[in-house]
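Subgroup meeting minutes
Present: P.N., E.W., G.H.
Scribe: E.W.

1. P.N. recapped why we're keeping a running log of single-chain structure predictions: easier to compare across weeks, and new members can see raw inputs and outputs side by side.
2. G.H. added today's entry (108 aa).
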Amino acid sequence: MGKTMTAETNMRCDRCKFWSDKEVEIGWEAEMIGFRECRAVRERWAIQDGANDGVKFYPGDDDAGEAAWIKKRNDALRASRAYVQDGSEYRAELVTGPDFFCALFQSS
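Output recorded in log:
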């Protein structure tokens, strides 16, 4: 009998379109061991800021405006299924090995 294909054997980062090219600078340690950046998992602030398009809210606005703004941002995070965040909110990335796998996999 042949080998059964599972998420672990089929949905690997090295087979995913979101796994970065080798040219992306992620640090020499990661490069030496064959790791790359996952571009499917985005920074929290980028997801939420993108969700704000079309929703205007300014501090001091009415509660309904604030609630709509917060809901839209939280819905965007839920839809993303994962995000990265660092303390400074300057830059964060998820770096994975070739045999890591996840629910965001899309064949390259």
